[in-house]
Every structure is written in C-alpha cells, then in structure tokens.
Amino acid sequence: MAILKILQYPDPRLHKIAKKVEQVNETTRKLVRNMADTMYAAPGVGLAATQVDVHEQVIVVDVSEERNQLMAFINPEILAASGEEECEEGCLSVPGIYETVRRAEKVTVRALDEHGREFTLDADGFLAVCIQHEIDHLRGKVFVEYLSQLKQTRIRSKLKKRLRETF
Ligand code: GNR
Ligand code: NI
C-alpha cells in the first residue's frame, strides 16, 4: 500500500502533457496500484498520473458505490463524444472547490488495461464525466480552466491563501 502525494492547484506541474506508455509492464501495474490506493484513501472517484507528478498517460476510475469496480485506462483516447451534460465537479488537486462544468454526455473510449490489452468502452452519466475529467489532466488541463477568468483568479488566491495558512 502506497499513498502518493497529490499536487495542488496552482502547481505548474499540473499543466505538463503526459507521454504515452510505450510498454505496459510491472512498473505500470505498480503505478496503477499506488494510484488506486491514493484514490481510495483520498477518497476520490478518479485519479490521473499527472496529479501524482508522473507524466504518463495512466488514469484510474471507480464510480461504484461499493468502491470495488476499479478501472485503469492506459493511453486513453476518446473516439466519439455526443450530447451535453452539466455536472458539479470537484478535484483532488483543487480541494474544497465545486463548480459546474459542461461536458459531453456520452463518450466512447479506447485504452489499454493494466495487462496491455486494448479495450473500448461506451460510457455515459457520471462515469463519462469522470473519464473526461481524468483525460483532461493528462493533457495538462484542470477543470477550473473551464470557468471564467474571474472565478479562476478567485480560486487561485483562495488556494494560495490556504497554503500559506497551513505551513
Ligand atoms: O473525486 C473526484 N470527484 C469528481 C466529482 C465530479 C467530477 C469529477 C470528479 S474527479 C475527482 C477526483 C479527481 O480529481 N480526479 O482527477
Ligand atoms: Ni481531478
């Protein structure tokens, strides 16, 4: 069991672009396990490698009530997106901030699992929201970037102030 440190917005490392995983191996599986431990401990419904300062295309998601449906997506790609949906989002890298974001309602995702096997998944509802939120992290994008500049400025100063008070 390993709990990794989660980068906090506005850390510039959250804007790095993750590289493709060339070969899915034991190192990749160890990262997936540690990311899952970190996500469950937080607790969160998803986590992207970018958030733990590993800039490779790996995400984990578990939107189940029982917290026993772990999904790992390596090199995920959105093949198709349709519809629109608004959801109040939060992020482990932006603690305490919840804002509504508009995203596609349904997505078709292709990825590799932790054994390097390709799969394609049709997702909708909250799962679709989470997958899009996590893939954004791999591209260096944090959900607050969908908000107005005014809101982003307010969120940044709030989190910086909170960091000063903690240390
Ligand atoms: O735990 C999380 N909850 C959440 C709620 C609404 C939309 C997206 C998310 S993902 C977030 C965990 C996280 O920060 N993943 O990157
Ligand atoms: Ni997030």
Task: Give the SSE map.
Blueprint: H1 26-41, E1 46-48, E2 58-61, E3 71-82, E4 85-89, E5 99-103, E6 106-112, E7 118-124, H2 125-138, H3 149-166
Antiparallel strand pairs: 1-2, 2-3, 3-6, 4-5, 6-7
Bound molecules: ligand GNR and nickel (II) ion (NI).
Termini separation: 27 Å
Strand order, sheet with most strands: 1-2-3-6-7
Order of helices and strands: HEEEEEEEHH
Largest sheet: 5 strands, antiparallel
Rounded Rg: 15 Å
Please give the domain count.
1
SS element count, helices: 3
Q: What proportion strand?
A: 25-35%
CATH architecture: Alpha-Beta Complex
Which geometry do the CA atoms define? globular
CATH topology: Peptide Deformylase
The proportion of residues forming helix, as a percent range, comes to 25-40%
Mean pLDDT across residues: 97
Uncertain runs are none
Q: What small molecules are bound in this structure?
A: ligand GNR, nickel (II) ion
CATH class: Alpha Beta
Classified in CATH, the superfamily is: Peptide deformylase
